[in-house]
Amino acid sequence: PGAAEAVAALLDRAAGPVLTEREAKAVLAAYGIPVVTETLAADADAAVAAAEAAGYPVVLKVESPDLPHKTEAGVIRLDLRDAAAVREAHATILANAARAAPQARINGVLVQPMVPAGIEMMVGATRDPLFGPTVLVGLGGILVELLRDSALALAPVGREEALDMLGRLKGAKLLDGFRNLPSVDRDTLAGIVQRVSELAADHAGRIAEIDVNPVICAGTRQVAVDALIALRQPLAPHG
């Protein structure tokens, strides 16, 4: 109940129909889903200070309720290894944001530690008009659209059903350590799927879509490094 109430309050404070990445991660964290640590920096000096506190290498992302698709807008820079790189990236991504969406509200720049490589998974939820909330898990990162390898179930799911979803993936062998890639602890990942499904079911009246991609997984170290949550919009009155 505490998590559901905390999330309801977060959703009430949202500035638009799509939560910012930071807001979305706060929602996930309330349900016990591991998310990358981050600091919102107001300017380049603050970004450098945050990077030095986090430890290099770092990632910079523009934080805006009007730029949900950050890769396409060119407002992310990865693997920044010193203060000069952070300052240059800070200027570049803000310029790209202004070009992509001149009217966008900019809250600042998120500074995150670069999460070590692992298997990239995605966990999501949508609302089916007939069946209600559904949860989805599949291979993530840039592979999502290429492979379209995912498993779907009605939300919420228990731990056993979440494990079964992982077993249904065509790429399930990847989770067990393929070639030189790390293995993925299935029980930990099933727990994330279960909690996303509970979040979607508990807030089915408010949340239209959850997209946690990627969750970077290596053994039991599994962390969501990006997230998008879209809210359901009230129906326009007729007449």
UniProtKB/TrEMBL annotation:
It holds the Pfam family ATP-grasp_5. Transmembrane segments: none annotated. Gene3D superfamilies: ATP-grasp fold, A domain, ATP-grasp fold, B domain. The keyword Ligase applies. One of its GO terms (molecular function) is metal ion binding. The keyword Aminoacyl-tRNA synthetase does not apply. Residues 25-61 form the ATP-grasp domain. Keywords: ATP-binding, Ligase, Nucleotide-binding. In the N-terminal section; belongs to the acetate CoA ligase alpha subunit family. This is ATP-grasp domain-containing protein. It comes from Pseudoroseomonas cervicalis ATCC 49957.
